[in-house]
Amino acid sequence: MSPHVKAISREEHLRFVAARPSVSHLQTPAWGDVKPDWRAESLGWFDEGGTLVGAGLALLRPLPVLRRCLAYLPEGPVVDWDAADLAGLLEPMLAHLRSRGAFSVKMGPPVVARRWSADAVKAAIADPSAHRLGDVEPTVREAGADGIAERLRRMGWRRAEAGAEDGFAAGQPRHVCQVPLAGRSLEDLRSGLNQQWRRNVKKAEKAGVKVVLGDQEDLATFYELYVETAGRDRFRPRPLDYFRRMWTALTAEDPDRVRLYLAHHDGEVLAAATMLTVGDHVWYSYGASTARRREVQPSSALQWRMMCDAHEAGAAVYDFRGITDTLDEDDHLLGLLRFKVGAGGQAVEYLGEWDYPLNKVLHKALGLYMSRR
């Protein structure tokens, strides 16, 4: 018998998350408070005995004028993706969201498809015939991922086009960089850094860069660096209120959920970053730095301290989040890929995000609208 899906309380949802070794921070109840333009609802999957066997945070974004909405489950839901009857898990979710007025559903299965080691990525970048990660053989192909993708297609789901979160164009990275921590000593982590990373960490230590933990009052300092970084790296910055809201919401749910790190040198903060933790998974969330005194390597010092703290806390993985899958030397994001993989990280490809049109006319109209923005 297929599980049934219904709304659950934040407390039920949080207990479910706390009982798992790893759940995306985007699938915690508090994340809904970070997104005031979306209406958040915690969903629960119950088996015939009434036991909660799955959960998800659904974000509902109303359409202007029409009383319909887009439903989005970022990096979720948290269900048994290896279940033989996957349709039996997803169809009740679609029915529930339809009853909430959803005309289209987007989700991001937390299922890894392929992994490339740091050495494999380095070799791929040096290979002139390789233009994307997908052009080179992965180090690991995760069993079952292709089968899950095929079952989703047969159910009517379609892989979404990659995009940035902007209004209705919600999206999370399909490719990320992760540093494995489980079963490794701190010396193992240090030896996993490439030569440039080790040199930069030593430079920072010799120059006297100090990395400290900040608090909510330090968000303004972080934000000044963040706006400078946005201008330098050509992306649109989020408002300061977003980070204040994120801090308030996540720390209210768990005081250890979010941390702010600041790299000081000669009385000035040169770099800052936020770190998120859920279970044994740690994410580098937002980073910022100034162009001043880059020779003392504050960003490398910052990341190394965050990796060390994650290791000390018993985390299984340190997640650098999104990377480009392009290997084109002309792409300005390639430098970021080199930086993250240089820390001993592996490139990880998830199944990506998938769309299901509950109302095909409205779903198509939204797609046309977004393509013309």
UniProtKB/TrEMBL annotation:
Matches recorded under InterPro entries: Acyl_CoA_acyltransferase, FEMABX, PG_Glycine_Bridge_Synth
Keywords: Acyltransferase, Cell shape, Cell wall biogenesis/degradation, Peptidoglycan synthesis, Transferase
SUPFAM superfamilies per record: Acyl-CoA N-acyltransferases (Nat)
Superkingdom of the organism of origin: Bacteria
Record-stated family: Belongs to the FemABX family.
Protein name, entry field: Peptidoglycan bridge formation glycyltransferase FemA/FemB family protein
UniProt lineage: Bacteria, Bacillati, Actinomycetota, Actinomycetes, Kitasatosporales
